[in-house]
Design goal:
The strands form two sheets. This protein has a seven-stranded mixed sheet, with helices on both faces. Strands 8-9-11-10 form a four-stranded antiparallel sheet. It has 14 helices and eleven strands. It has helices at 3-13, 15-29, 40-44, 60-71, 93-105, 116-133, 147-164, 170-173, 191-199, 247-257, 312-318, 347-382, 403-415, 443-466; strands spanning 140-144, 182-186, 207-210, 230-235, 260-264, 289-293, 305-309, 386-387, 395-399, 422-426, 429-435. The protein is of the alpha/beta class and 467 residues long. Helix 2 (15-29) packs parallel to helix 4 (60-71), helix 7 (147-164) crosses helix 11 (312-318) and helix 12 (347-382) crosses helix 14. Bound molecules: pyridoxal-5'-phosphate. The site of pyridoxal-5'-phosphate has 14 residues, from helix 7.
Length: 467
């Protein structure tokens, strides 16, 4: 059969879409009953995908069917209430529905002329984000795939400006023989920052590394004298402890001499959008650039990060896109504000999520993560866990009496199917890292999770005493 004809028919009769929708709904309805992490058997089921590249056409319904039958059970129950791994947020329902609709639009988000609606919603999101984070009016935003790309964009802008300060055009002359950029960071910067320093040729060994305190914050007293060749890397939300660096003090010093401060606020920047937690981000508006994710704390679907930068010229120059065929408009052309050209129109879901929640809804959701984290902290303490961090935001870091018991307890938790969280090392000790960042997590989910932790610790203790 002629494939083009077939594709027109699939669009017309909608059967594959109805099938996908019905599977999606049964998945979503069963989310709290499925294993939070897939069982061995379900993981093994994925072997069905080990097959040669087909020579010929495969029936579309068969593809959807197969994906649901073997793919759905091999997923992480990310959208349920008891997944606490990494700092992976859930998804607000309207953001998923919006994504479905805009998937049919299949917009290329690079330029105004390739998608006026995406460019429009980027402009709206930019204004709303500036307002909710209280950023300077000259701030511009680029909509990228995540905070890794946002960090890359922010640091590229910093590199451009700091070399420009020293009379060097990095776009034209590159890094060979360039003046030096002094990079000031503390031990607890995120892995994505180190990745970025490698990609941008800044070099990890060139960093003037400062110590971090017991919560993973920069130790202010160790900050060296700054000048206009300095890039200072700060963090809103340490990935283990949720701690925030002292923005106000560092930014004041940096701004006096024209240094650049970048704040990686992947999940933590959203504290600024609440009444009760905004004190954590005090002074952050004094920085030069900020990274934040939509897909973590704000609970948009994946592939949503934002770079915000006070120095529009530096951002645009560092990510410059030129080409005779590029048609810039008098509207916002997204291509200028991020490293990508063709891109998914991710601002559409971001807009829908902010519009749906409103400022009060965002405040309530984010404050709720903190409240659930405090509930968890209390419950775990009562059951003999040692809480290693000050629970200032949504992260709870715990351990048992010894590393062996901690690792065994974690294994029980991860195999429980009831909840899931990851491990970490904190101050040389094995730790269990819990992140509360889904709108779907209820107080009851936290109670159930405390129960799983209690049992896991008892079991770990038993194994040890029988050995
Ligand atoms: C998650 C995270 C990143 C990386 O963000 P992605 O969206 O995964 O690219 C960077 N910094 C911090 C602090 C994070 O938590």
């Amino acid at each position: 059969m002629d494939l083009q004809k077939k594709m027109f028919e699939e669009l017309r009769d909608k059967r594959i879409f109805d099938l996908a929708r019905s599977h999606a709904f049964s998945y979503s309805d069963g989310i709290d009953k499925m294993d939070v992490y897939p069982s061995e058997e379900n993981l093994k089921g994925m072997e069905i995908f080990d097959e040669p590249f087909p020579e010929n056409h495969t029936d579309a319904e068969e593809i959807i069917q197969k994906l649901h039958e073997y793919g759905s059970p091999a997923t992480i129950a990310q959208t349920g209430g008891r997944y606490f791994g990494f700092v992976d947020g859930g998804a607000v329902p309207v953001s998923v529905a919006t994504k479905w609709l805009s998937d049919f639009w299949d917009q290329c988000g690079g330029l105004y002329v390739t998608s006026p609606i995406n460019a429009k919603l980027e402009t709206i999101c930019e204004a709303w984000l500036k307002e909710i984070f209280n950023l300077p009016k000259e701030t511009v935003a680029g909509f990228v795939s995540g905070t890794s790309m946002a960090n890359l964009s922010g640091l590229a802008a910093a590199r451009f400006r700091l070399l420009q300060n020293q009379g060097w055009d990095v776009n034209k002359k590159g890094l060979n023989g360039s003046p030096k950029i002094r990079i000031i960071a503390h031990a607890q910067v995120h892995a994505s920052i180190k990745k970025t320093m490698a990609i941008l040729g800044l070099g990890i060994e060139n960093v003037e590394w400062l110590p971090s305190d017991d919560q993973g914050r920069l130790v202010l007293e160790k900050l060296p004298e700054l000048d206009n060749s300095c890039l200072v890397l700060l963090q809103a939300g340490n990935a283990n402890t949720g701690a925030f660096d002292p923005f106000e003090e560092v930014c004041h010093k940096a701004n006096e001499v024209g240094a650049w401060v970048h704040i990686d606020g992947a999940f933590g920047l959203w504290a600024a959008a609440t009444k009760s937690l905004a004190h954590l981000t005090k002074g952050m508006e004094l920085a030069s650039s900020w990274s934040v994710d939509g897909h973590k704390t704000l609970n948009t679907p994946y592939d949503s990060g934002i770079i915000m930068c006070k120095d529009e010229e530096a951002l645009i120059s560092s990510l410059q896109a030129t080409g005779e065929y590029l048609v810039y408009s008098d509207q916002k052309d997204p291509i200028l504000y991020g490293p990508e050209m063709s891109k998914r129109s991710r601002a559409i879901e971001l807009w829908a999520t902010m519009k749906y929640l409103g400022k009060n809804g965002i405040d309530k959701m984010v404050t709720g993560f903190h409240e659930r984290a405090k509930q968890l902290e209390k419950g775990l303490k009562e059951n003999g866990y040692i809480v290693l961090n000050d629970v200032v935001f949504n992260q709870v870091l715990v351990s048992c009496d010894t590393d062996t018991i901690t690792s065994q307890a974690l294994e029980h938790i991860q195999n429980s199917g009831t909840c899931w969280c990851g491990g970490s090392i904190w101050n040389g000790k094995s730790a269990i890292r819990i992140s509360v960042c889904s709108w779907a997590t209820t107080e009851k989910d936290i109670d159930i999770t405390i129960g799983v932790f209690k049992k896991a610790k008892e079991k770990a203790g038993q194994i040890l005493s029988t050995n």
